[in-house]
Amino acid sequence: MSRVDHRHRHRERIAEVRAGTAAEKVGYPIRVRTAEVVRTAMVGTGLLRVTLGGPGTEGFEAHSPDEHVKVLFPEPDGTLRLPEPDGDLLRWPKPSPTSREYTVRRYDPATGELDLDVALHAGGLGADWARTAEPGAEVHVAGPPGGLIVPHTYDRYLLAGDLTALPAIARWLEELPRTARGWAFVEVADAGERIDLRAPEGFEVHWLHRDGAAPGTTDLLERAVRGIDVPRGERIYAWIAGEAGSIKPLRRWVRDELGLGRADHDITGYWKRGVADFDDEDDHPHDHH
């Protein structure tokens, strides 16, 4: 037995971080998988769920509510350029293949089903793919490259975002202990975009309606989040994602007003108005290829 089995070491690390006091990014072995579309369904009026399956999703790793995969698309001339396996990582061709990132909404090890909820208001390539995806179609998926593992030991959790962050927030609320407390703020176009959330009882859930304003143009989320009343002496974890410009003021607020250290918050621009394939690389150093 000269070869040590490292396969599950990341799982041990995940369990340690989860039981500890500070959040940490943990990498998992990254694969490129050839999956197939099982079905598609609307989730509210804003999200289109693409359920993937087939032999290619077997053994998928899902450990963190905001982990993401890249769906890889053929180039305009029809060629598909896929990354090559390189140990536990991937070697990416240059220039990078056309891809879009999606939160892993759900992975079921029993059925191999993998749900990706695509925000239709973002428009463009990903939304077009989701709208036209037919059962049986082949889909190439890379990742997740790892995930942010957040301990379940904080006193309260602050979760906030727009429609693009809703799949991650929904998963957060499902996966936190039922005794967890906190706030969830979700900015949506209107009541149609609301979805059922399985939140712990100690969570206040606030839906913020834009009432006709375009996505990424309001300060609704910022104003609502700044209104929370944090009990003295409690440890808070903040997770905020959405349109880069509209969440920017919250970065400062979380640091200066809430006084949260680096390990106690994660704030990520998931998209940017007017930018087709935005990548908030500052916050995802583990994604650099």
What keyword list fits this structure?
about 290 residues, alpha/beta, Elongation Factor Tu (Ef-tu), domain 3, Rossmann fold, six-stranded antiparallel beta barrel, five-stranded parallel β-sheet, 5 helices, about 35% strand, disordered C terminus
Can you tell me the number of structural domains? Answer: 2
CATH architecture of the largest domain: Beta Barrel
**CATH secondary-structure class of the largest domain:** Mainly Beta
Estimated structural class? alpha/beta
Strand content: 25-35%
Instruction: Point out poorly predicted stretches.
Output: 282-289
N/C terminus separation:
32 Å
Widest β-sheet, arrangement of strands: 2-3-8-7-4-9
Question: How many H/I helices?
Answer: 5
- The helicity comes to 10-25%
The name of the CATH superfamily of the largest domain reads Translation factors
Largest sheet: 6 strands, antiparallel, barrel
The CATH topology name of the largest domain reads: Elongation Factor Tu (Ef-tu), domain 3
SSE order, as H and E? HEEEEEEEEHEEEHEEHEHE
Shape descriptor reads globular
Give the total of beta strands: 15
Mean pLDDT, as a whole number?
Answer: 92
Radius of gyration: 19 Å
Domain FAD-binding FR-type: 30-151
GO molecular function, one term: oxidoreductase activity
Organism: Actinokineospora spheciospongiae
Protein name: Iron-chelator utilization protein
